[in-house]
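Run log, item B.
One chain of 479 residues. Sequence copied directly from the ordering sheet:
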Amino acid sequence: MQMIINGVQRAAASQKVIEVRNMATMELIDTVPQATIEDAQEALEAAREGAKLWAATPIYKRVEIIERFVSALRERQEELGRLLSAENGKILAQAIGEVGVAANLFHEFAQESKRLFGQTIPLEIQEGLEADLMITKREPLGVIVGVLPFNFPVELFAHKAGAALAAGNAIVIKPPEDDPLTIIKMVEMLHEAGVPGNVLQVVTGYGEDVGAYLTKSPLVDAISFTGSTETGTAIYESGAKNLSRVFLELGANDALIVCEDGDIESAVDHAIEGRLLANGQVCCANKRLVVHESVLEAFQNRLTEKLHTKKIGNQLEKDTDVGPLVSEEAAVRVEQQIQQTVQQGAELIFGGRRINRTFIEPTVLTGVTREMDVAKNMEIFGPVFSIISFKTFDEAIEIVNDTVYGLNSSIFTRDMNKAIEAGNRIGAGIVSINGGTCYRPLCSAFGGYKKSGIGREGSAYTLEELTQLKSIVLRGVMN
């Protein structure tokens, strides 16, 4: 499959390729070009022209094009979901669902763009300006670079490309090298729907090469990145040198609190749903389970009972619950993190093995203490449940906040006063009450505190981030 630069499907200037494989079977699905910095530069130069063209396109026409794409995407949802499942490793139902979420996001951004109004401000509010009238409007930023993660490439493509296009910007997409195929297909479909070739482009390649070049270019007005905190920090530094706007959704070590009066059955169900989603490779998943000592045994027993029923296998088979991680390297890293946590004193009471190179068994670690790496700043990107017990409510809040991250959190309790207090005291972008941490409504202001990111993504919020405010003043017209 080829990348698409300035509307043309083409190979890399170097003719090198990257292999894309099904990590369950190691079967080669396809190859994509390993783009060079020359390829990236060509895309950016085309995008500068595309930004002018698309900004001059009336909003209603942009909306018509996007909605045409949405209809096509919904018609091909199962086909694209199957491709996503194969290249990404998440189970088929989740992949098909992700494509559906992407369609909803493009629709929401398109419709919300029609309500991106300015203000009319009589300046009689300030002495000496009584005769002046100010009109404000929002205009596109220009050229956006969107860098996508491997875990939710389709949904994050919608968050970045959907918002950029609806707001009138041109965008260059750098997809993940592990699973870029579905993104390329969606870019093709957007072009077929009427998006000009220089307005939306996809440049495939490695992050350290083409990704780094795109994000440090002075031709870029804004960068939207989802991925690791380490990479996000480097991108922030690069963008700052050009005064490019930078929006970052980064790592996390989110916590789920279970109080003594919490619904154990519901808490276990939400914990499993959140931690097995995408085979445990979710930034806002409940990676730390902070459980009151009085219900600790009951919670652990119910958790392991339910995990016993989960089937590990090929993600394309409908009865599979847990598929492979995105790569063998990723699986080895999780295996090492499990072993490190056990060496620090945790007890492995369920799972813990790496199977067939890329699979990690659902794993339960108990006896985790506040001092261990996994309880603080070590993010495990796999189906691992780390359980920390607490005695008092204040102690639970301290445990949750004792990390450099702060994306999502949740608490299970029947005491609404305690729940609201937790919401106020926890340093996280979203605090979910009696529900899991994998929670992201389309309209939410999704984003993190501390080193979990900068900026917010969500229908109205992203459109504001990707536009700039202009004021036009009519002097003396109110006389």
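Observations after the first pass:
- The chain has 14 helices and 22 strands.
- The chain has a mean pLDDT of 97.
Flagged for discussion on Thursday.
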